[in-house]
Structure formats: C-alpha cells, structure tokens
Design a protein that fits this description.
Number of strands: 0
Radius of gyration: 33 Å
Shape: rod-shaped
Strand content: under 5%
Structural class: mainly alpha
Distance between the termini: 99 Å
Amino acid sequence: MIRPTAFLESRSFERCASVCMAAMLGYMATARTTITLDQGLLDEVKQQASQAHRTVSDFVGESPRGRLSSMRRQPEPFTLATVDLGGYKPDVDISDNASLRDVMDEE
C-alpha cells in the first residue's frame, strides 16, 4: 500500500515545489556553468556584489544581459520625405479664413 504522504516526501515533490515557487516569484530558468576569471577580477566582482547585496551569480549575469541587449540591431531611423510646394504667399494672413478662401479661389 502506498502512503498518502509518500509523494510529499519524494524528490519529485521537491523538484515540483521549487519549480512552482520559482514560477510564482517570477524567476527565469537558469543554467549552471563554469567560467574562468583571474583572481583580481573575481575579488572585485565579489566585493561589488557584496556592496550591492547581491549574489555573485546575479552580479555576473547582469553584464552579458546588458551587453547582448545593446548589441541587438537597432531599427533604421525613420525619415520623412518632404516636398517643396513653393513656399507661402507673404500677403496672405493664414489666421483669416475668409482671405485664405479668397486666395484659394483665385488659384
């Protein structure tokens, strides 16, 4: 007979609980890897992470994320084509609808 609490005591439950908790807290999936740093750089990273009250992993993870986002291709700037329509007529008051109508009727 299987005990009802067997699942709660199993490794499957622990994995399920940690995945569910991570999803609820909004954590991204992570991967474990090894990097090689010179000792001076590692000491500086540890010091900066400590001062920011962050883990070394969080601190190191920010740099590639920022660099990759800046490397993404930026869209070409939008340019608006303009056309010269001959300028304005200096004797026309554009705030006067009646005079505008008269000038438009003449053309």
